[in-house]
Design goal:
It contains 17 helices and 40 strands.
Length: 669
């Protein structure tokens, strides 16, 4: 067995590999760029080597820099993680030339399957059904438009070396092909150093379901069930689960056997994933094969008990698989939520900055619930603009799908994160969405259910009632503490009453509850209308997280103190809750609401990023939907468009400028 391995990656996947290597007694080497000097994976590894500037194309994807680190440390093997060099055959070849093991598949398999065009040809020859498309490389936008017309719209523009949603665009007409082709080429070049493109038919209303395979160097292979990855945004997976709520045993077996046949056809050895699109009749079509560890591999590990990283290391060491297909059992259900540094209230645009608070839920491994959090960050750390915006992968396991979903709801509500925009509210909203709960999902789920973006969650009245009862009891606890402050003037003792008014939103909010509290040593009976709710909790003023039993149901809330109440975040909702005496509530209702400033004549930068170009000049007339500027953040180019007709009066930024959120790019008359 190897004594030392180098992880040619960063973030949560580097930390994930280090954990398994440590358990196996293998020393680890981390590599890091300027931006990652203090990163968690650097702290966790036994050794760390600096490999260059912050941009990935000057550090993490420079083969010579990784090889230098291997030579410096004497590492015997390299695990590439995912992304970066994980599917680069030149990297695997270079390691082989150095006499260093590549913890991944053979070069031939990477070349055959890592290139999407070649992999589709091989799949077709092996009898695997494939999606219609143009298998040759596309030179320019004009050729892309001609080919797209032959295939039929909509089409998918894809980078041949792509992955993780980078270099991918859906085009519904010629103008979108022309615009998206160049943007995809630019993203592919920046992310992978390879701007080759191809086009395939975009199948509407599909499910994205993938099969995890594991093969050794002795011709043995198994498939470890499937993962449902249909909930995607911008072609990037957001929530995954295993198994799929849609497949039946026959379809699972057929997909698994085809996946293994494809793997054996190219002499595959290591962990790999074969991705399919599946229609409503369970017809499945080969999409691509990822010759690496997948981001979402933990859900497979949770339902099979197989440590995929360990098996990759053992296979690279020449060992045989310890299991056969008959040994594979799918136990329970697992769900993964990807936590991204993206602001859901701003169209999921990237958010960077310092994590002023980072408190994930406690990891547990039990018979009725397991919680796992794979991360590469820590409280006080920076989320950099140079890399993927993933913060963590939160996973829950339960004996069945319903218990796994409930475990995820509670885990998301208990996940404390401050300092940056993040998608926790959106993930919580999905867990309660009726279509997700029913398993009725496709890759169009987010586009169809949130066509105008995510604007928060409107909780049902019964849930608001429980929150109102909890907040009233919490406010009473805080008020009692304030009455006990030392140094009071004589004869000025404050008394805490029993009657309160709880309002949600602004002072004149229509959602309000009149409550009466009768407290005892163990909790309080809160009367709302004709209902009495028993409230019990160990919450004390100053705690940022509250677990409150209300009427026998546990409500998990993130709590922020505001004047006269709380900011409560739970189940995807962000609530301003005021708790007032009846007289205070009466007076508060008379207060005018503060109106936000008018920004309708400004183009504001929606995320921290770098201006790629400005597409208009002062005096230009613009129309609705017209591209105004392009801002790059976290390896993605974002096109900013006009929301209505107007005339540009001033241009405040230019190509190369680094902007913060809400910096003014353009002004209009």
């Amino acid at each position: 067995m190897f004594k030392k391995i180098l992880i040619a990656n960063r973030g949560e996947i580097a930390c994930r590999v280090i954990k398994t290597a440590r358990r196996m007694g293998i020393a680890t080497v981390a590599v890091y760029s300027d931006a990652d000097r203090s990163a968690l994976h650097v702290q966790m590894a036994d050794e760390a080597v600096h490999i260059g500037p912050s941009p990935a194309n000057q550090s993490y994807i420079v083969i010579d820099r990784i090889l230098d680190a291997v030579r410096q440390t004497g590492a015997e093997a390299v695990h590439p993680g995912y992304g970066f060099l994980s599917e680069n055959p030149k990297f695997a070849e270079a390691l082989k030339a150095e006499g260093v093991a590549f913890i991944g598949p053979p070069v031939r398999a990477i070349e055959a399957m890592g290139d999407k065009i070649t992999s589709k040809k091989i799949a077709a020859e092996a009898g695997v059904s494939t999606v219609p498309g143009h298998m040759g490389l596309i030179e320019d936008a004009d050729e892309a438009i001609r080919i797209s017309g032959q295939i039929g719209y909509p089409v998918m523009l894809k980078a041949s070396a792509g992955g993780g949603g980078k270099g991918m665009r859906i085009a519904w007409d010629e103008s979108e092909v022309r615009e998206g082709f160049q943007a995809s080429k630019n993203e592919a070049a920046a992310s992978f150093g390879d701007d080759r493109m191809f086009i395939e038919k975009f199948v509407t209303q599909p499910r994205h379901i993938e099969i995890q395979i594991l093969c050794d160097q002795h011709g043995n292979g198994v498939y470890l069930g499937e993962r449902e990855c249909s909930i995607q945004r911008r072609n990037q997976k957001v929530i995954e689960e295993a198994p799929s709520p849609f497949l039946d045993p026959e379809t699972r077996r057929a997909m698994g056997e085809q996946s293994l046949a494809l793997a054996h056809a190219v002499g595959y050895a290591s962990a790999g994933t074969v991705e399919f699109i599946v229609d409503g009749d369970r017809n499945f079509y080969f999409l691509e094969m990822n010759t690496r560890l997948q981001v979402e591999h933990p859900v497979t590990e949770l339902i099979t008990g197989v440590d995929l990283v360990e098996q990759m290391i053992r296979v690279a060491d020449g060992q045989k698989l310890p299991i056969t297909q008959e040994d594979v059992r799918l136990n329970g259900w697992a769900i993964e939520s990807r936590l991204y540094a993206e602001d859901p209230y701003r169209g999921f645009l990237p958010s960077i900055g310092r994590l002023t608070r980072y408190r994930p839920p406690e990891e547990v491994a039990g018979e009725t619930l397991s919680v796992r959090n794979d991360t590469g960050v820590f409280e006080g750390g920076e989320i950099s603009m140079f890399y993927d915006p993933m913060i963590a992968k939160l996973c829950t396991w339960g004996p069945d799908r319903a218990s796994a979903i409930q475990g995820m709801r509670d885990a998301l509500d208990g996940f404390e994160m401050e300092g940056i925009g993040h998608n926790l509210p959106f993930l919580s909203a999905v867990m309660d969405h009726p279509k997700f709960v029913a398993g009725d999902i496709t890759t169009a789920f987010i586009a169809e259910e949130y066509p105008d973006g995510f604007h928060g969650v409107d909780l049902p009245t019964d849930h608001l009632k429980r929150i109102a009862a909890a907040c009233a009891a919490m406010h009473r606890v805080a008020e009692i503490r304030r009455t006990r402050v030392s140094g009071r003037m004589d004869n000025h003792e404050r008394k805490v009453g029993a009657d309160w008014v709880v309002t949600f939103g602004g002072a004149g909010s229509d959602t309000r509850f009149e409550v009466t509290i009768e407290a005892d040593r163990h909790g309080a009976d809160v009367t709302i209308g004709d209902e009495v709710l028993r409230v019990e909790s160990d919450w004390t003023p100053g705690k940022k997280l509250a677990r409150v039993s209300v009427g026998g149901e546990v409500v998990v809330m993130k709590v922020g103190k505001i004047s006269g109440g709380f900011r409560i975040r739970t189940r995807g909702a962000d609530l301003i809750v005021h708790v007032r005496t009846p007289r205070q509530a009466e007076l508060a209702a008379l207060m005018p609401e503060k109106t936000p400033p008018d920004t309708s004549k400004l183009l504001l930068c929606p995320m921290p990023g770098l201006v790629v170009r400005i597409d208009v000049a002062e005096g230009d007339e613009v129309h609705e939907g017209q591209a105004l500027a392009v801002v790059e953040a976290m390896k993605m180019e974002n096109i900013l468009r006009a929301e209505k007709k107007g005339k540009v009066s001033k241009v405040n930024a230019g190509a190369g400028d680094s902007l913060a959120v809400d910096d003014v790019i353009l002004e209009f008359e």
